[in-house]
């Protein structure tokens, strides 16, 4: 498929020259003589590359405004700026705003073709990188056999034919976005857009613009609601939305329509809304920091994700899964990746599943060139952090606050649960390791109320 290039220049001779040069190379070329024509062409179809003259006569808008418009629609679209009388400051400003290159007139056929081909190649590589990263970070399965994960998988299945709003809560890195993506992929909206608005990353004054879009001087920027139309919108860390903006979101949920900032026309939308939070929204409602009416509309189907440290039986499954995925992506033989360390099951995992995945990725990359000692050092450095020490401290404090008998039972229970998890629930292996008869271990587990750990 031929690349689509838009040439914008108010000089007909230069416009004709550039268009002919590009057509001879089998590019699909469109052209515009001024700002208004350019906006019409851009809105028809965003080009694969644009060549824009900075100074456009007979208009109060220039090439810099068109650069901003294109980059605002897709920052990966390469733009080459040209000019015969621009200052160094303007050239620097164009590059700062996202232009791929700045060319002074007059220029040779070889020069313009060289920049066009390099710009398209760079854009292709960026797109490929994004595709790989999407595969890496957004296509993982929900892995685990702990009761909490099994329950969530069943809930996702039940939601397949539902349009209900969902509120996903859980600590940072526990997999909230992954659950939201699975809900979307299982729904009738799977072929439509899945849009994420991360409320924790927005500046206070930009929430409404990012949600509703904006109309300014004839330009339109689309907000998350419009981009997610017919699909699914995930508002990540919904607790960070300002109180005033919460009322506007509530109104959209009721009316299914809204106006862009500075806009006069209502825009109808049909979206599936999923929200996620790492904070307790009920507490925020009680303290007056989150609207109760919005909370009830968001919390139609609640899903709670547990911390990784509370479901350590999933750790070996997750490790095996990430090893297989990451070995393929990084081109490292699976047999070379060894992730085994006793501290994996006692470490507190403050970053949860994301932290475990990052550790497996680092070990996978190191496994290509580093020796086993370097990898073991990395594992020990990561897993012997203060988080693990803090966890042990909490256990000790609980023990010291109890009578001797209760403290001993508490320690034995914690110790045996940890050893069972390390041995994947295998009673014989656990008994051998702790130096206890198998039958005696069975009796001890029963007396402490410890059920089978798989």
Description:
It is a single chain. The protein is an alpha/beta fold. It folds into three domains: 4-134, Response regulator (Rossmann fold, 3-Layer(aba) Sandwich); 147-306, Rossmann fold, CATH 3.40.50.300; 309-387, Orthogonal Bundle (Helicase, Ruva Protein, domain 3). Helix content is 50%, strand content 13%. The chain has 19 helices and 14 strands. The protein has helices spanning 12-23, 35-44, 63-73, 88-97, 109-138, 147-158, 176-185, 207-212, 224-227, 243-255, 281-286, 292-298, 315-330, 352-367, 372-383, 386-400, 404-422, 427-434, 438-447, and strands at residues 4-8, 28-32, 49-53, 79-83, 101-104, 166-169, 194-198, 214-216, 219-221, 232-236, 257-259, 266-268, 272-277, 301-304. The strands form four sheets. A five-stranded parallel β-sheet has the order 2-1-3-4-5, sandwiched between helices. A five-stranded parallel β-sheet has the order 7-10-13-6-14. Helix 14 (352-367) runs antiparallel to helix 15 (372-383).
């Amino acid at each position: 498929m031929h690349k689509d290039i838009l040439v914008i220049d108010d000089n007909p001779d230069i416009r004709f020259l550039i268009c002919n040069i590009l057509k001879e190379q089998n590019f699909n070329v469109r052209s515009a003589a001024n700002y208004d024509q350019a906006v019409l062409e851009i809105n028809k179809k965003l080009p694969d590359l644009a060549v824009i003259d900075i100074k456009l006569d007979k208009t109060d808008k220039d090439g810099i405004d068109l650069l901003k418009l294109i980059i605002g629609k897709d920052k990966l679209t390469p733009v080459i700026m040209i000019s015969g009388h621009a200052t160094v400051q303007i050239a620097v400003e164009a590059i700062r705003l996202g232009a791929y290159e700045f060319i002074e007139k007059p220029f040779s056929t070889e020069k313009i073709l060289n920049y066009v081909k390099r710009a398209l190649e760079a854009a292709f590589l960026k797109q490929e990188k994004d595709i790989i990263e999407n595969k890496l970070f957004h296509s993982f399965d929900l892995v685990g056999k702990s009761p909490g994960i099994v329950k969530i998988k069943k809930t996702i299945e039940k939601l397949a034919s539902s349009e209900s709003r969902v509120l996903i809560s859980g600590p940072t890195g526990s997999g909230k976005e992954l659950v939201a993506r699975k809900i979307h992929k299982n729904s009738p909206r799977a072929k439509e857009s899945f849009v994420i608005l991360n409320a924790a990353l927005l500046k206070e004054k930009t929430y409404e613009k990012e949600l509703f879009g904006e109309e300014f001087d004839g330009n339109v920027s689309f907000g998350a609601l419009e981009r997610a139309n017919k699909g699914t919108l995930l508002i990540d860390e919904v607790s960070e939305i300002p109180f005033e903006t919460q009322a506007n979101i509530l109104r959209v949920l009721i009316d299914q329509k809204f106006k862009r900032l500075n806009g006069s026309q209502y825009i109808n939308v049909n979206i599936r809304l999923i929200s996620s939070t790492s904070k307790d929204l009920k507490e925020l409602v009680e303290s007056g920091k989150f609207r109760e009416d919005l909370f009830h509309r968001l919390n139609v189907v609640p899903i709670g994700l547990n911390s990784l440290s509370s479901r350590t039986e999933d750790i070996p499954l997750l490790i095996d899964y990430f090893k297989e995925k990451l070995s393929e992506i990084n081109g490292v033989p699976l047999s070379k990746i060894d992730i085994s360390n006793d501290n994996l099951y006692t470490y507190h995992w403050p970053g949860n599943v994301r932290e475990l995945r990052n550790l497996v990725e680092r070990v996978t990359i190191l496994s290509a060139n580093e020796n086993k000692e370097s990898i073991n050092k990395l594992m020990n450095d990561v897993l012997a952090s203060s988080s693990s020490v803090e966890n042990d401290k909490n256990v000790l404090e609980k023990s010291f606050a109890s009578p001797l008998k209760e403290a001993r039972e508490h320690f034995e229970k914690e110790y045996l649960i940890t050893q069972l998890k390390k041995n994947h629930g295998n009673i014989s292996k656990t008994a051998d390791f702790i130096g206890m008869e198998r039958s005696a271990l069975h009796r001890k587990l029963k007396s402490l109320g410890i059920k089978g750990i798989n």
